Amino acid sequence: MADEPDPGDGSAVPPVPAPDEGVAPPAPVDVGGAPEAGEDDLGPGAGPGAAPERCPEADEREEDDRGYDDLRRVHQLVNNNFYGVVDASGAAFGFDSVSSPGLAPGTIEPQEADRALRFYIPPRLCFDEALGKLREDAFVVLTGQDNCGRGAGSLALLREILGEEAGLRSLSPANSLAELAASRDLKPGQGYVILDYVGELNIEAVQAYSIGRLSEELRRRGSYLVITAGGTTHRRLALRDHCVAWRAPDPVELFERCRELLPHAALSPDTEHELRERVGEQRRPADVVAAAMVLSREGAERALDTLRDRCRELVQELFRKQPSADDLIPLAALAFLEGIPERTFEKECAALAAHVRNWELSGETPAAEPDHEARTALHGAVAHQSRARWKERAVGLVTVEHRSGPGRNAGRSERHLVFTEPRVREFVIAELHDLYGYELWYPLRRWLGELALLGDLGTRTEVARGVALLARHALVEVDENMLKVWSEGLISQRVTAALTLQFMCDTEHLAPQALNIALGWTENSGPRRAVTAAMALTGRLGSLYRLEALKRLWFLTQRGERIAFSAHRSLVLLLQTAEQDPERALFILRYVRTVIARATPGSRERSIALRAAVQLLEAVRLEAPEPVTAALLRSVPDSARHLGSLWADVLHSGNRGRAVSALCRTLVQLRDDPSVTDAVRELGEAIRKAMSERRWAALCHHLSIALKHPDYAFPGARQLAQVLLGSLRGRAPADSRRSTASLISTPPFTSAQGGRSK
Predict the structure, then answer these.
(1) What gap in Å lies between CA 540 and CA 390, rounded to an integer?
(2) Neighbours of 30 (CB within 10 A)
(3) Which of 217, 398, 474, 570 could be stapled to 534 by a disulfide with Cβ–Cβ 3.0 to 4.6 Å?
(4) Which of 418, 416, 427 is nearest to 398 (CA)?
(5) How many CB atoms lie within 10 A of CB 373?
(6) Does the structure show a pLDDT above 70 at 130?
(7) What pTM does this model have?
(8) pLDDT, tens digit, for every residue of 263-288?
(9) Could you give the count of Cα atoms lying within 13 Å of 331 in the half-sphere of its Cβ?
């Protein structure tokens, strides 16, 4: 649909309907119209007269709606987890909860690099080898185990060559190296890193020619690129000659370096000896630094406790006793269902026991008894004091908490089983993966699939958390046996798959893998997987890889109607979840502004972009029934300029009525807040600057009528509208001044007394 003709093209402001006919506020919507249905929405064999293989389009849309409702509820509950800090236990030389520099693409600030390299000592042999390759080719790939310090090594190499004041920038792990070589994004004298590169998304592998071209382009510009990747990267022939196997530095040497830079008290010889022994057993630089920090702050005993890792030892000790099925099955179930109500947990635990029993009755080896000892087939289980058994089966690992329920149950609490420390859950899943084979994981996978299909939202959310933890140890298995199946399934399964990818981003080396999986679902994988990808690109995944998420969602808006509809909803959800992150909120607004500016007037692309813009302007907050625009104007500096540009564009389109209503709702929400006066004035100036004289007059006329509607007819809102429209009144044309004066002087409708409060 082309833009609506400019109201300023004629000789007068277009007629406006009477207040009771055309100014009733439409209900806020998340999505607007979308392009016509295309081949993306047709199943195999579809054609004239062909019967649909799945539910009709309306049913599919309703199913997707339920999925987005679930996503919104999860975002409301775990907003701090998604958009707070990432777990940096595996970060290179990280010792706190801050993400390691370069995880999210963008500029790496000098203070971020300083923090990452505060205690850095280079692993000399591999550092020198990598430095030589970097000097020669301007390009090197650091391979090796996760958490061995590759990320910090990449920053140290670039600083060694370019100096400490050089500009450093992180690129997306989904970047194509061939496209990077041909792009204009490479700047002179710049250092680039790609952390945890997962390979090319396209089927064709990166060819040696493209790698050579990239190296040549970097040398020509005096820039350098360091890539970190898993140990299998060196097997790719095109990259083989550029790979260096990375090693962690000597842990004792690193520990001494930390002690030199941190304040510390004298240690007895015995304590120092034990500390050195424990430090020498560590394989992750982050753990060594963490112990040194604890030693400096809390003393030797706490540092020894950190190095001993009593939590991990308790879990390992439990599994060394080879727990029976009666103990193993509830523990395995809790690893994937921690924190749900106990009554729900017991029901699902019984279902897992039934899956295991059925597998054992098939004649295969029992899950918990590889030595063919006397089997425990859970006979007479009703006589067991199962709740009391937790005191014996998981001493120091599991506890009971009383938590209030949501909604109508908010005033009542019930029992929930939880691990004593968050890390226990990860350690239990690690032991299950390391010690048990197909005989346990086959029934366990079937049980998880059943929960993803039939479980309530709380259950499926915990399943997603647990599967994301399992992906740390068995990514291929999780992808092939769970995510691929769920992403193509019913909406409950697809939401579980999307949440799993988002929770995978809490582990730094899995975040690029989650992005790669989501992007793969958008490439010729069918409408259901494309919708699942759109869901996954919200939340933590969209927060980390904001540009990649926006570009891919914009690509999906060009697809068939159902996929485009979901992409629009995901764009709205991205803005809703970015409210607490001003930089990301502005990034989203700038991106949509850029898309509109680049689109040809009257084109399909511009029409889609305008629909996206009006949906953003209509969006309400996750935590409260108020416009996101009001929250941004209140708390995010410079948001008025971007919102004003979007409003000006949408007001000059077929979405004018919705844009006026969204503006009225924003003014009503802000009417009692004097602190926003300057922001509203700036908003008015931004709208006015982007409009012709007659468009501005039309806006004044439409807004004056809309504010007489009972839902908007509040004196405070009218006064704020005076600020909005009167901000440039001295420079407005005559028609604009008359419209503004009319707005300011018109008394509120008598029906305003019945208007809704904010």
Answers:
(1) 34
(2) 20
(3) 570
(4) 418
(5) 11
(6) yes
(7) 0.82
(8) 877 888 888 888 989 999 888 898 99
(9) 30
